[in-house]
Design brief:
The chain is α/β, with parallel strands linked by helices and about 575 residues long. It folds into three domains: about 1-220, no CATH class; about 220-425, no CATH class; about 430-580, no CATH class. The protein has 26 helices and twelve strands. Strands 1-10-4-5-2 form a five-stranded mixed beta sheet, sandwiched between helices. Strands 3-6-7 form a three-stranded mixed beta sheet, with helices on one face. Strands 8-9 form a two-stranded antiparallel ribbon. A hairpin with a 4-residue loop joins strand 6 (about 105) and strand 7.
């Protein structure tokens, strides 16, 4: 059966752990986030102890036998022959417990996987304080596979300790050493791996993975690239993960960091920026082959070609993770009016906009102020139109293709301006956008753009002397949000009028931003009751200006509800357009 793309290989747990330690099997750095819950680690050891199967592993030959380098955890002796496609969490759990090494959890905290064993009841548990204080438990099974473990001395001491609590029966004195020996012997537990041939393409490997994976998880191209980075540039992967970890929380020493209140990226998101900047590509399907040093025409691998491509990626990543670049770009998002994280409806849009900003800065050397306004408008347009939703890689690939013929700063700017003009036509503003606002979705892109426009236009909060921009400050923390979305026609009021469908009640055009205490005061009162009272707070000219910004017709509260919604959607679209034009 020479057409098979794989071969079956039998291992023991001990052999797998040894090959990982040597680097024969490329387990990504043990310090990258471990996503399993510790109870799953407990259940893994319990299944092995009871003789249950724990699944098949899936490896892929890397295509570079005979190369030598240091990768992963500690000093390994050879480059990996095999890359892990499926089984990484199982092998990480086994390696961390049996080698007694710490891992990093999904919150980026260093922890030890400590699994306890009860030798009398022969059960496993995640170690906790109560177990540590209970002498009937072995609080950490990692000791059984350490080089200095003395089986005879351990069992003797354990039996003495248990005898101090109560007298053991002859059956227990016999069964406890057997249980310990059975646990120690897990090092010889058998496992099967399917090793996919180096000749298989990444598309074939992904298809194999999906077909045999019982959970049906899709193996994406970022998974492949991260695995490859772990093998040939582990430092680069660690840089991405460290950056993302630091972006989640401010440093206590106030040193510069990527932390910000707007966006905490994931490594795979920044990887996409790396790739766009290094190779002008958005689709990752060919990037994996490029980074492997594979000639897309001949299918041959070249270490020199691979090293050249990784050098490009390394250079791009230095730009992507530059703290000054990162924070300068976040100013672009603020400049676009999206000053609060709740307004960012698509992280993909933010990621791809960062890539374009870096291209404009690095490759086209655009003036910083010109670049900021240009990219702020691009982010506004892309967020408003949902440009990168649906098929984001395809859309970004097209956008990058638009820039291939550009060499001058003016050409870069003109290309983006022309694309924005082609999208945001008069018919878009006057017909398409009002229709898009006819929704009850809480994450509507039009509503986010409308609130961003209120920030850009320095509009006041409805029925307040304070500004929307000031009260949307993401750094302010209080028990209640300074601003709340308020039903202009309250829900209970509409229900009393016979309008009970939530899709009608929660229309985007029925919401306005008010201060929280006004929202409480309004309650479920008729707008014809509360609005005139609030109008008396302001002189006529101030009220007219406020109503214009908040897209409210004069005496809006006397209008029939459906008529009000239609008119307000039209006025909201006009304010969004005004906000966008203010970025010129």
């Amino acid at each position: 059966m020479s057409h098979l793309l794989f071969k079956k290989v039998d291992y023991t747990i001990g052999k797998l752990v040894e090959d990982i330690a040597l680097g024969e099997i490329g387990l990504p750095d043990i310090q990258r986030p471990f996503v399993w819950d510790t109870t799953r680690v407990r259940d893994l050891f319990d299944s092995m102890y009871r003789g249950y199967p724990i699944g098949t592993l899936l490896f892929w030959e890397n295509g570079y036998p005979g190369e030598y380098r240091i990768i992963g955890e500690g000093k390994k002796q050879k480059a990996p022959r095999l890359l892990i496609v499926d089984g990484q969490q199982r092998l990480t759990a086994l390696y961390a417990v049996m080698r007694n090494v710490p891992i990093v959890d999904k919150n980026f905290d260093r922890i030890r996987l400590r699994i306890a064993f009860h030798p009398v009841e022969e059960k496993f548990e995640v170690t906790n304080t109560a177990i540590e204080r209970d002498p009937t438990w072995i609080a950490d099974i990692s000791r059984f596979w350490q080089p200095d473990f003395d089986h005879y001395d351990f069992v003797s001491t354990l039996l003495e300790r248990l005898e101090e609590r109560r007298r053991l029966t002859p059956e227990e004195r016999k069964r406890i050493p057997q249980a310990i020996q059975r646990l120690v012997n897990l090092i010889n537990y058998p496992m099967t791996a399917l090793e996919i041939s180096v000749n298989a393409s990444e598309e074939q490997v992904a298809e194999i993975f999906v077909r045999i994976n019982s959970q049906g998880r899709t193996l994406n191209q970022a998974d492949f690239i991260f695995t490859l980075m772990s093998v040939f540039w582990d430092e680069g992967r660690k840089q991405l993960e460290d950056f993302c970890r630091q972006a989640k929380r401010p440093l206590l020493d106030n040193h510069p960091s990527p932390y910000n209140p707007y966006f905490q990226p994931q490594p795979d998101q920044l990887l996409r920026v790396d790739v766009a900047l290094a190779f002008r590509r958005a689709r990752l399907e060919h990037v994996y082959s490029i980074l492997r040093g594979k000639d897309l025409q001949t299918g041959e691998f070249s270490p020199d070609r691979r090293d050249t491509q990784f050098a490009l990626l390394e250079k791009a990543q230095a730009e992507v993770l530059d703290l000054q670049h990162w924070h300068d770009f976040l100013k672009v998002i603020k400049r676009a009016g999206y000053i609060h994280p709740s307004l960012i409806t698509s992280e993909t849009t933010l990621v791809y906009t960062y890539a374009l900003w870096l291209l404009g800065k690095r490759d086209f050397a655009l003036d910083p102020h010109t670049l900021r306004n240009l990219i702020a408008r691009w982010f506004f347009m892309s967020s408003l139109t949902g440009r990168y939703s649906g098929a984001p890689e395809t859309r970004m690939e097209q956008d990058l293709a638009l820039l291939r013929g550009c060499s001058q700063p003016s050409e870069f700017a003109q290309t983006l301006e022309q694309e924005m003009a082609a999208v945001l036509t008069s018919s878009y503003w006057e017909i398409t956008l009002p229709n898009q606002l006819a929704t009850a979705s809480a994450r509507n892109v039009g509503q986010a753009a409308y609130f961003a426009s209120l920030c850009l236009l320095d509009a006041p909060v409805l029925y307040s002397h304070l500004k929307v921009r000031d009260l949307l400050d993401p750094t302010a923390k209080a028990q209640k949000s300074a601003l709340e979305r308020h039903h202009l026609f309250p829900r209970k009021y509409l229900e009393r009028q016979g309008i009970t469908d939530r899709r009608d009640i929660n229309q985007v055009a029925n919401y306005a931003l008010v201060e929280w205490h006004d929202n409480i005061d309004i309650s479920d009162r008729s707008p014809a009751e509360y609005a005139p009272k609030y109008e008396r707070r302001f002189p006529p000219e101030k009220l007219r200006e406020m109503y214009r910004y908040h897209a409210l017709p004069e005496r809006w509260y006397d209008m029939e509800y459906s008529t009000f919604l239609a008119e307000r959607r039209r006025l909201m679209a006009a304010i969004i357009r005004e906000g966008f034009e203010s970025l010129r």
